[in-house]
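# step 3/5: fold
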Amino acid sequence: MPIEFDNNLPIYLQIMQYIKRQIVTGALKAGDKIPSVRELAAELQINPNTVQRTFQELEREEVVETKRGLGRYVTSEERKIMMIKKEMAGELLDRFLTGMQELGIEEQDIVSIVTDALAEGSQGKGEKTHE
């Protein structure tokens, strides 16, 4: 699990975001078992207490559930997973719009830029060239 930690954000929040991203992208599916505290702590080379806090927060948000004696599992509620996906999309959109506004780009120009980029993307079907 490759995570490069940002010193400006608590590690447990970064792990939460990573796990949520794995869930919304399908790397972890609804009902999948997630690693134990010890496994994840060893893999990430962090304190088990940090992983425990991460899991407690994910449980509080109902992203994961504990099955007594069996471990922790991704929620089987598809509605919850869709809610996480929308939340993450909203955060990306907020950052994008803030960046565009900081560049002084007007709303109608933002729409044109996005429309053009989507049209280009659909023509290339994922083939990106780097110049």
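# step 4/5: annotate
Helices lie at 11-24, 37-44, 48-60, 78-102, 107-124.
# step 5/5: archive (pending)
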